[in-house]
Every structure is written in C-alpha cells, then in structure tokens.
Amino acid sequence: MELTALLTPAEEGGYVALNPETGTTTQGETVEEAVANLKEATALYLSEFRLPAPGHPVITTFTISAHA
C-alpha cells in the first residue's frame, strides 16, 4: 500500500510527519526517523481502523501576500 508522508520542520528541531490519508502524525529528529515513525504509527492505526477513503490527497502549493 502506498501512502503519503508530508514532513515539515518542527520548531524545536527535527520534523513533524503527517499521513493525510489517515490523519496519523508523529515526529523524528531526521527525515528518515520521522518517516519510519510515521510508518509505524500508520500501520498501528490501520490495524484498528480501515482506510477512510481510497486514493491519494491532492497536494499543491499557494502563495499569499506578506501583507495579508
């Protein structure tokens, strides 16, 4: 099963990892650790709950004015 991992830098260092298909979130000191932790957390989630919706989310970017 192929799922999405969205990683963002954490304020305290390291990364926060989110799987948007299930809503599972975790963290790690490195990208590799964050993804490994997310795989574990998502597997645990899926062992209890079914995947809410098939397919991948649409991920895009947008820009806002700095004066908004």
What labels would you give this structure?
68 residues; alpha+beta; Double Stranded RNA Binding Domain; three-stranded antiparallel sheet; 1 helix
List the helices and strands and how they pair.
Blueprint: E1 6-9, E2 15-19, E3 24-28, H1 31-48
Antiparallel strand pairs: 1-2, 2-3
Helix content bin: 25-40%
For the largest beta-sheet, the strand count, sense and barrel status come to:
3 strands, antiparallel
Q: Which secondary-structure class do the elements indicate?
A: alpha+beta
Topology-level CATH name: Double Stranded RNA Binding Domain
Overall number of domains: 1
**CATH hierarchy, class:** Alpha Beta
Number of helices: 1
Shape descriptor reads: flat
The overall pLDDT average reads 91
Taking the alpha carbons of the first and last residues, their distance comes to 40 Å
- Which regions contain 5 or more consecutive residues with pLDDT less than 50? none
Radius of gyration: 14 Å
Structure overview:
The chain is of the alpha+beta class and 68 residues long. The chain has one domain (1-68): Double Stranded RNA Binding Domain. It is 26% helix and 21% strand. It contains one helix and three strands; from the N terminus they run E-E-E-H. The chain has a three-stranded antiparallel β-sheet, with helices on one face. Strand 2 and strand 3 form a beta hairpin. The longest helix is centred in the middle third of the chain and has 18 residues, at 31-48. The N and C termini lie far apart (40 Å).
Brief summary of the model shown:
The chain is built from 1 helix and 3 strands; from the N terminus they run E-E-E-H. It has 68 residues and is of the alpha+beta class. It has a single domain, classed as 2-Layer Sandwich (Double Stranded RNA Binding Domain).
